[in-house]
Design a protein that fits this description.
Helix content: 10-25%
Strand content: 25-35%
Radius of gyration: 20 Å
Shape: elongated
Distance between the termini: 34 Å
Largest sheet: 8 strands, antiparallel
Structural class: alpha+beta
Order of helices and strands: EHHEEHEHEHHEEHEEEEEEEEEEHH
């Protein structure tokens, strides 16, 4: 068993995802008592701060009760759906964040469907229960109906629900009993999200995202699928056209807090950043030159196309005539 949890956060625009991540980072004691942590830490891009939305995914991690929680922040707008599909492949579970008044929205449906198809275990976080006219119990039922319509399996339908207000800094299993912290979310992640599977064998990593540094250039980011990558080791880069090029890892990093930390090795299940690779693209595989076995590339549909085909969910009453899936019927029975 690994004390690692890889969790993606999915939500509609302006449902409080970035604010919740800010609070989770603070709960992980990443800031000194006298340090100004600011707000919207993950929205570091100028355009993101200007518009108040997340466009590019970020990776951060926190240490909590002896566990390393890799938090994968994803775009909430359907126009960036391709980015969503890539980063979900690094997660073992997801936090589905919904507004306690608005409920699940079209972009929520798109991202949740992808997460369910990948078999991710959802934890539902109903945010903004401090808003006037909020309806957390009804929203919870809306989420259940949505998962039924998306053919969630029995385990996914048996999702835990956390209520609270990220803005006010509290989360609880009962929205009528506020607390003074957000640790209920972190405890739920440790309890319900499965640990990543440890796969032995020759090292393999699918490049699912990239970072950039003005000092070292482009940085390949992904989750180690199999084996162990080591700092300074010789690797092979398997590209889309079948070409295999020999490369060398100049520096290997993992995500610690909001930054990256140099490490000697990263094993299966953890997320890492590789410095020194040249000519790589998202979807390429990093593996051993003695046995260059490529992982399947991720097929991506553009978010705007999906959004155009996605109807507005509406309240539960508007979907009374829809037939629930078999897992949903069994769960209700």
């Amino acid at each position: 068993m690994q004390n690692i949890r890889n969790v993606a956060i999915i939500a509609h625009v302006d449902h409080g995802k970035t604010t919740l991540v800010d609070k989770m980072l603070a709960a992980g004691n990443l800031f000194r008592d006298n340090q100004n942590m600011g707000t919207q830490i993950l929205d570091s891009n100028d355009l993101e701060r200007e518009r108040g939305i997340t466009i590019l995914s970020k990776n951060v991690s926190i240490s909590y009760k002896g566990y390393k929680i890799n938090i994968i922040d994803t775009p909430g707008h359907s126009d960036f759906g391709g980015e969503v599909e890539r980063v979900l492949n690094m997660a073992d579970g997801c936090l589905l964040l919904v507004d306690a008044f608005e409920g699940p929205m079209p972009q929520t449906r798109f991202v949740l469907q992808k997460a369910l198809q990948l078999g991710l275990k959802p934890i539902v976080v109903i945010n903004k229960v401090d808003k006037p006219n909020c309806r957390p119990d009804e929203v919870q039922e809306m989420v259940f109906d949505l998962m039924c319509n998306l053919d969630a399996n029995e385990d996914q339908l048996d999702f835990p629900t956390i209520f609270g207000s990220a803005k006010e800094g509290w989360m609880s299993e009962d929205w009528q009993q506020p607390t003074d912290n957000i640790t209920a979310v972190l405890d739920a992640i440790i309890k319900y999200i499965p640990e990543p599977e440890m796969i032995e064998g020759d090292a393999q990593m699918l490049i699912t995202s990239l970072d950039y540094s003005s000092y070292v250039g482009r940085i390949a980011v992904g989750r180690v699928h199999r084996g162990t990558l080591k700092d300074g080791m010789e690797v092979a880069l398997c590209k889309k056209d079948g070409e295999v090029s020999k490369q060398k890892i100049k520096e290997l990093r993992t995500f610690e807090g909001m930054g990256q930390q140099h490490v000697e090795s990263v094993s299966s299940g953890d997320i890492c950043a590789i410095i020194g690779l040249e000519g790589f693209e998202i979807g390429d595989t990093v593996t051993l030159p003695t046995n260059p076995e490529a992982l399947p590339r991720i097929a991506i549909r553009q978010g705007r196309q999906v959004c155009d085909l996605t109807p507005h969910l509406g309240p539960p009453a508007a979907r009374v005539g829809q037939e629930p899936g078999p897992a949903c019927r069994a769960h209700r029975e």
